[in-house]
Batch of 2 targets.
Target 1
Amino acid sequence: MYRYDEYDQAIVDARVAEFRDQVARRLNNEISEEAFKPLRLMNGLYLQLHAYMLRVAIPYGTLDSRQLRMLAHIARRYDRGYGHFTTRQNIQYNWIKLEETPDLLADLASVEMHAFQTSGNCIRNISSDQFAAAAADEIADPRPYAELLRQWSTLHPEFSFLPRKFKIAVTGSATDRAAIQLHDIGLQLVHGPGGEIGLKVLVGGGMGRTPMLAHVIREFLPVADYLGYMEAILRVYNRHGRRDNIYKARIKILVNDLGPAEFAAQVEAEWAQLKPLGLDPPPSELARIAAHFAPPVLAADAPVDIDLSNPEFANWVAVNTHPHKVPGHAIVTISLKAPGEIPGDASADQMDLIADLAQAHAGDEIRVTHAQNLVLPHVRRDALFTIWQALHAAGLATANLDRASDIISCPGLDYCTLANARSIPIAQKLAVRLARQEADLGELKIKISGCINGCGHHHAGHVGILGVDRKGEENYQLLLGGSGAEDASLARILGPGFDEDGIVAAVDKVIGRYMTLRAGPDERFLDTYRRVGAEPFKEAVYG
Amino acid sequence: MPRLLTGNRLETGDVIWWTGDGWSLHLNDAVAVDDGGEALIAQFSPQERINDLALIDVDPAPGGWRPRTTRERVRAVGPSVRPDFALPSLPVDAI
Ligand code: HEM
Ligand code: SF4
């Protein structure tokens, strides 16, 4: 785990004190709401439908048990006993009071956490692979590269007023669990010709109103030149990104307008200018950071074979665990998607339980996934049964990872001021309906957003659902064929929209048609869709 | 069509409704402000104690009001997916 050094802690503590003063002045009417609003947003505090909402940054989705217990404490003390884990690996609290926020932020700071750069036109919390440092297929842990970026960019004045928000994802594996093709910058660790590690750089991906896949602008960037190159990208964006139209301000629009080749050429030119300035830190700095992320020491002789005679447990192991780098170990995904529950919500008691399990059995680490689940990355296989029993008793042992009921959903109109329609009830109905057949369906990713901003990644769903407003009524569009993984693609709208019951029935019809069309039990819905196209599904739904 | 004045309390963010002589958490305590709404907003805005002051359209309903849009019904009652937190002015399943 990265540990704050004295600078980090001083910055965070100073920010809490500054915000405490700002809140006091706002409550005394010494400053207007107009002046105060940008200040509270800079500290992650939004005004939503029912109360203030606080977005807490979880860098790379990595937590230790002490931090997760603090998140539980905050849920209990300042909220209504729960929180919502988001697609950006953060957590949001829905019932926060402005007058209590300074105390809340001080509590967070005591465990090296904060809420800044979770809003505004800055470099947002950097996301990463939830299996970092554990995945059997990774080249190296991507988080030190992300952490170096974070240290460089946090409160950096040059990047505090970008044309628009800026989201970066870093992964160390060819299997993309961080959706790097759908970020402003996506970075993938790769091997160079001599076996050395470098970065593949993708720019200009994103979802929202104008979804686009990122373009590779450099196949191999030596690690030593890494920050300078990032600075060059941001400078080109800062210089030419549009500030006149909020809908055209993301870097994806600039990359698209210039063309990826011209954009890359401008970055190279800028980089050539920057290089002599010696911006990049010495390699020892990356090594210093990497040491913080060293995984726990795991016994190489832990037994691989375990007793799988309990069928429910065996099924959970098959569906919700992944191979670990170190034999005799596994990566456990804890589903926050029990059918009928709210996707991504966890109660304070559940958080405490998971913190206890992480401390006892998983090297004290927890990860948040962009699919709104939690992960124990370093678990001995011979502890799996104990963990499963504890999860089972707390309603957390649903075996549905990447299946039909493992639905991504944004808060939608139940909480969000920008929403057109509710997303959570659709997720609940679909999950309950599809849970019975999901083992047969195999991998199926359903993603739901309550408006065009796309916080629920609907464009990256095998099945995507988008809430729209039709003359004051909630209405839902159905999209098919998207993916946020290494085979990324953007889902397309199938046809006219539906009401709440209609969209559930339409998804059912799509799935029914898939079952008759698929080439075999191993052909995923996405593969069938890519093979046969939209027509048969259109016919099933509208015919 | 009746209109109500609503906003969010600065200190807590709570959704509140104008009752004629104060503010209430409950939609059904609200009074119709109709054409007087803009004047009330002009009166309260400079005090800077209530955020996002707005007038919303409602229909009369048994015991009080029913906001016209789903958004305002959710605002008045609470998240439709957490009936345990629902305020009593409207039944959750009528959102
Ligand atoms: C409730 C308060 C929220 C507000 C006000 C909000 C606002 C927005 C807006 C305005 C955009 C579009 C930005 C653009 O295209 O330039 C956006 C995109 C996004 N938001 Fe949110 N959002 C909220 C909650 C969430 C939640 C709960 C999640 C995670 C579940 C999330 C994750 C994202 C993601 C992944 C995108 C897409 C980024 C992209 O454009 O590539 N947001 N959000
Ligand atoms: S997609 Fe729209 S409705 Fe959903 S959280 Fe984002 S802004 Fe709100």
Note: Chain B touches chain A through 24 residues (CB under 8 Å).
Target 2
Amino acid sequence: MLKFLAKGLMRDRSRSFFPILIIAAGVVLTVLFYSWINGFIGMIISENARFETGHVKIVTRAYNELIDQKPYDLGLMNVDKKLNYLNQNYPNMNWQPRIYFGALLDVPDENGETLQQGEVMGLGVDLFSDNFERNLLNLENALASGELPQKQGEILLSQEVASKLKVKLGDNVTMIGSTMFGSIAMYNFIVSGTVRFGIQAMDRGAVIADISDVRSFLDMKNTASEIFGFLPNYKEEKTYAISKEYNEKFSYENDEFSDIMLPLREQGQMSFMLASVDQRTGIFIFFFLFIMSIVLWNSGLMNGIRRYGEVGVRLAIGESKGHIYRAMIIEAIIIGIVATIIGTAIGLVFSYLLQHYGINISSLMRDANVIMSSTMRARVTTECYFVGFIPGVIASVIGACFAGIGIYRRNTAQLFKELEQ
Amino acid sequence: MNKLIEMKNVMKKYPMGKTDFVALENIDLKFSEGEFTGIVGPSGSGKTTILNIIGSLDSQSSGDVLVMGKQIAKLSNTKSARLRSQKIGFIFQTYNLLPVYTVFENVEFPLLLLNMSKEKRKILVNEALKWVGLTDKIKSKPAQLSGGECQRVAIARAIVKEPKLVLADEPTANLDAENSHNILKMMKKINEETGTTFIFATHDAKVIKYITRKITLLDGSIAQDEIVSGG
Ligand SMILES: Nc1ncnc2c1ncn2[C@@H]1O[C@H](COP(=O)(O)OP(=O)(O)OP(=O)(O)O)[C@@H](O)[C@H]1O
Ligand SMILES: [Mg+2]
């Protein structure tokens, strides 16, 4: 009997080939859409990780209280020791100390008199020991003129700052601020290049120098505002686990100068933002699945209804309703699974291609205010392997179930009438 | 002769808007084993409805219908399916072959429902196809056959399980005169040699020549029930 049904399924293209085609197409779209959304969330995370949060970051508890003001005078001490510990205990991760500071940038004339002066937001990062921060901050690509600092005493200005203060490449500028201990601080830099990130917050008033210069400037020997930690691949659970482990060891509620490690999601607006992105994409995905499901549900239904005539004959010959119903469902399940596997495979191939090559949207984004990244990429996660089964198997089988109910609801003689028309 | 079917005071109505449409009324009929009976009457007189009720494809609104000793209205889906699969063969005006299957597979299908061994199925299918003279077309699909050939396949499918009863609803309506006569002869021969009971619904005058009993329906009631010469 099974063989008989299988034969029918194979021979009748309108029962096998076309439904498989439709379902597989729906599944391809679903998988692609899903991995695309994943890529989008991943992009938000990685952009924030680069400039704002790291995958995790370590600050003092006191600093954390005022974290919006980035108070470097409440920064981390003994940074070398901490980095040693971190590198030893989390060898897969990359740890980067950074200093954020606010200062006045003073541009003198030939006589040393102030020509222009403006507030800047400084970022001290490790530019020299390896390429990690340069790559992470995408400095090479952000460079608008000049070159990256090659030696100590050189500084990058955002294009906006440079043009506002009328600074040229190679000019001497003086940074004026206050040291960690509150006395006045001054430091001379040579402008080596200008940068444009396409991220408003960075472009408005940012300057970037090597962390060693910034330490000298602010009298912050062996200290940092924050230490960023980066996993090879972002995994939310991991960031929580590592933070928990670290905090259990080093964080004391009653010692405001003890450290606290914060996972990306627990920082600033991230929790709120990711929650709303999650929610929005959740709604998006839900609607997409819903629509896809309706389409495939309907195709399952139509396939069933088209066959009422055949059902009538089989009933007359003596097959029971239950038997026919089960056979229809099994058929739908087999078709759904085969189509979903095919569709998922094709969808994953496309998703991996999009993950690898991405689509360059820089031309679209040239004048946009908030460029996140010029390349949109998909991101394949485990869920991408399974998400297609929702519309592909569940929805199409439910469609077949509904079509099949007609077998019970309708009088057998009625099924015949439909056949005779 | 043994009673095969008994209908007592059968009424069938279909809901039609607010009122009901009465398709059959006061039907009292008995059929014995081995009959070759035609139910005749104008279109809409209720012929198909009677056959459907006897074949448990439909159920009466009131009255009793006993088929081979069973109150068919009271049978469950599974039990009425079993009655059909074991005891009743159907032949339709429009043949109703399953288009994706070959002649052999179409005829074999009823036997699959009876869980017969492959060897036995093969013997029975070939035998049935021999009855209808189609042994040379067993690998063809219905689309490759003429109307007359299709109806012969349908007859083979109806008789392959050696049922006690064959219900045929206008089996010759779509056939030309020659094919109609061939098919009727074929069924008559099966009836005479195997004792299978045949009940036809028809308004084809050619059929009248072959039947031995003629029941005339008019507006859902029996107008006449007579023994006729028959072939
Ligand atoms: N499902 C239904 N709903 C309402 N009325 C129906 C239904 N089925 C049949 N009828 C009516 O019952 C009557 C008898 O129908 P039936 O099909 O038994 O006639 P018939 O004698 O077989 O006609 P024909 O020779 O045209 O096949 C007809 O008037 C028909 O309109
Ligand atoms: Mg009829």
Note: The first helix of chain B runs from residue 47 to 54.
